[in-house]
Amino acid sequence: MATFVISKRLNDAYKYELVSRKGKTIFTSNEFELRFECEEEIEFLKRHIEELVFMRFRSGNGKFFFRVILKEKEIAKSRKYTTQLLLQKGIDEVVKYVFEAEVLDFSSGLDIFGETA
């Protein structure tokens, strides 16, 4: 199962990533000024999963990636994949797991794991 992870960028803007069950980022959202905007877009995305459009691209160095489009607005960009098959597997994982993905919020910057001995 995939997970949405909300975090802060270095410029204090918020973002969310869809992370696979193996811990690899599938896609990263655009920036948001407020954390709750991430949560709202994640819920909107879950409700409208059947309307997602995946535009496939190839970068200059031959890697593949996709952009996630919802209601004619780009909402996220995928990581780079080495083959078209892996790209398609990434898209399939989005379609299969987005609806049930849980949301983890790591944007507070607190040390959630505590000190290690």
From TrEMBL:
This is DUF1508 domain-containing protein. It comes from the Bacteria. SUPFAM superfamilies: YegP-like.
